[in-house]
Structure formats: structure tokens, C-alpha cells
Amino acid sequence: MNESYYLILAALLFTIGCMGVLLRRNAILVFMSIELMLNSVNLTLVTFSRINGDLEGQVMAFFVMVVAAAEVVVGLAIIMSIFRSRRSASIDDVNLLKY
Amino acid sequence: MTATTVLAQDVLAATSTGEAITFWVLGPLATIAAVMMVLSRNAVHAALFLAAVMLSLAGLYAAQDAPFLAAVQVIVYTGAILMLFLFVLMLVGVDSSDSLVETLRGQRVAAVVLGLGFAGLLIGAIGGAVLQDDGTVAAVGLEAANAEGNVVGIARLLFTDYLFAFEVTSAMLITAALGATVLSHKERTEAATLGQREMARRRFAGGNPIAPPGPGVFAGRNSTATPALLPDGSEAKTSVSSVLQSESYAPPTEGPSAVRGAVPPPNGDEPSGDHP
User: Fold this and answer.
1) What is the count of residue pairs from A and B with beta carbons less than 8 Å apart?
2) Mean pLDDT throughout B191-201?
3) In a domain, A93, yes or no
4) What residues of chain B lie within 8 A of the CB of A50, using their CB?
5) A-contacting residues of B 136-155, CB under 8 Å?
6) N or C: which end of chain B has fewer CB within 10 A?
7) Mean pLDDT value across residues B91-106
8) CB distance B81–A69 less than 8 Å?
């Protein structure tokens, strides 16, 4: 085995996350799939950091983690406020801007 | 001497057997858990599968000379972010399951086909970019960069080259905290902001100045959620607090039992809910 296996694993996880976003209706599950995609990108960054022998990739992954933490807080607050006003966490119900 | 040095360098350059075992245990585990996360009907199960994926990824980081990120992954993702997810899941309601209705016809099939194509595209592109002609990867390895220790190396980069980005991060975190506070802020109900004078004025303007009946008066049970019964046997809606009527309160399934010997409303129509 070599380092490219990690990249293939990350690509698989990213694809699974993509499909989760496309397939699921629950807003929280869509959000979890986005987190999965962010995690797979982190794995790619760490692997490339090792391939290039440079710690910058790990610093990038660290920043991605910080941004993901902030993003989760705001996103879950948005989901909560939508749920409070519409009594539903389904993304199909939030189509008022569509027409 | 030289032979052992060359051998040691050879071992260092290639991925070791222990790392291969780690990868072949954690990699399939992460993949299966991710698939189960997408497929599971229960949202809490999905959160737990996501925790499995994140812990596997932490193990893979540790195997790839990134012990600091492995620790941060466990603390920030599985410790904080997933707990936040579970928190919101419990607030929203665990049984808020997905609707099975397909809004766009053929969307699922198209999503799966596009996903498989996307995976092939990604893997092909990465393989073409990284793999050499003989199928190996020319990896430098982090032994030189981690010579002082992984945490020291990351800190050196973070507080020199990326210092401005690091400082801006603090502004972003404050903005996120402020945004979450604003978004989850609940406006007080109108009744809570009214003064005593306005309350009294509205009460006398409404035509029913007497005190509303207390809950549980002449009722079958003494819960505050049980409406009082009027002399004609009907329920007085105004006897129950508006909080219990409006939010997250489900009335008892069998309903309040009428007082023994209560007579039905005389003329059959629904009373207004106040004393006649």
C-alpha cells in the first residue's frame, strides 16, 4: 500500500457525503453529510502534507476544523429557528422563495 | 553500517506494515459507517455512525504523522460538534423522520449514478496526479518536518506565516457565536410585555371583566393542563394557561372526564368558553 490509498478513501467518503446531501430530506442529516465531506477533505490535506513533506497541509486542515466548528454553530441555529417557525426539519418544506 | 542505514531509510520511506493494518481496519470501517450514516432512517443512529467515521479518521491522522490533528479531531469533532448535533436532534425531536416522498421524480437514481461517476472522476484525477509510472507515490514523509515534534512544527507555521489568518479566526468565532445567539433568540410573547394598565384596559374592553375560572375546577383531574368545567359541563378553554395551550402540550388522549351527573349543553351549540 502507499499514500494514494488514503486519497482514494477520502474521495470515497467525499462521494458518500455528496450523495447524502442529494438523497436525504432531513436538514440535520444533510448537515451531517456536509460535515462528512469536510472531514474527507481534511484527510486529503493531511495526506498531501505527508506526500510533500510539509506541515502546511496540516495547518490548512486545522483551519478547516475551526471553520467547520463555527459553521456548525450557525447552521444548527438556522435549522432551529426554521424548525421553531415551521415545525419541520424537512428541507422540502422550505420552498417559500421558490415562487 | 551503510547497509543498515540504507535499510532503515527504505523502511522509513515506505509505509510500514503496522500502518497498512491500521489503514485496512479503519478505512473500511469509515466507509461502511459513512454508507450506514447516509442510509439509516433514525437520525440518532446517523449521528453515531458519523462519530464512528470521525474516530476512524482520527486514527488515520495518527497513522500519518499528524498526532495533533488526531487529538483535535477527537476533541473538536466527536467531542463538540457531534454533541451539538445530538443536542439539536433532541430539541427538534428524534422522531422527525424523513419524508419518503420523492419531490423530483428519478432524483435518487440520478443522485446515485452521478455520485458513482463523481467518485470515478475524483479517483482517476487523483491517481493521475499522484501516482508515478511504476504505480508508486514519491512521498517525502514528515520525518524532517516533525523533527522538533508535530505540535512545535504546526505552532511555528501557525504563529509566523499564518498569524493573520489565525487572528482573523477569532473574529470569525465571535461572529459565529453572535450569529447563533441572534438566530436562536426567541421574541417574548406580546402578553409578557404588556403593563398592568394595558392588561386591565383590554380585559374590560373585551366584555368579560370577571376573573377566568381556575384550572381543575369541577374537573375530573387536578392537573393545571385540565380545563375547568362550566356549569353546563363544557370545558372552559380560558382556564388553562396559554403556554400550555400553544406550545408542545398534547392534551390527554381520553380527554377530561365530565363531572358525574353533568348535563349536556342546553341548546347544543358550543359555548364561548366563558361563564354565561
Assistant:
1) 238
2) 79
3) no
4) 64-66, 139-142
5) 136-142, 144-146, 150, 153-154
6) N
7) 70
8) yes
Q: Which residue of B has its CA nearest to A73?
A: B180
Chain B residue numbers with beta carbons less than 8 Å from the beta carbon of A65 are 69, 72-73, 76-77
- In a domain, residue A96? The reply is no
Which has the minimum average pLDDT: B36-45, B162-171, B217-226, B262-271? B262-271
CB spacing of A80 vs B176 below 8 angstroms:
no
pLDDT tens profile A72-86: 999 999 888 888 887
Complex confidence, ipTM: 0.93
Domain range enclosing B233: 213-247
Range of the domain at A12: 4-88
Cβ contact B130–A51 (<8 Å): yes
Q: What percent of chain B has a predicted confidence (pLDDT) above 90?
A: 34
User: How long a stretch of residues is chain A?
Assistant: 99
Q: What is the DSSP letter of B174?
A: H
User: How much is the mean pLDDT over chain B?
Assistant: 79
CATH number of the domain residue B132 falls in: 1.20.120.1200
Domain count, chain A: 1
What pLDDT does residue B100 have?
63
Q: Which residue of A has its CA nearest to B163?
A: A59
The per-residue pLDDT for B210 is 73
Q: Is B60 in the same domain as B116?
A: yes
- B21-28: long-range contacts (C-beta < 8 A, 24 or more apart)? B22/B59, B22/B60, B22/B63, B23/A1, B23/A5, B23/A6, B23/A9, B23/B60, B23/B63, B24/A1, B26/B56, B26/B57, B26/B59, B26/B60, B26/B63, B27/A5, B27/A9, B27/B56, B27/B60
pLDDT of residue B9: 46
- B21 and B129 together in one domain: yes
Residues B122/A12, Cβ–Cβ less than 8 Å: no
The answer to whether A15 contacts B119, with C-beta atoms less than 8 Å apart, is: yes
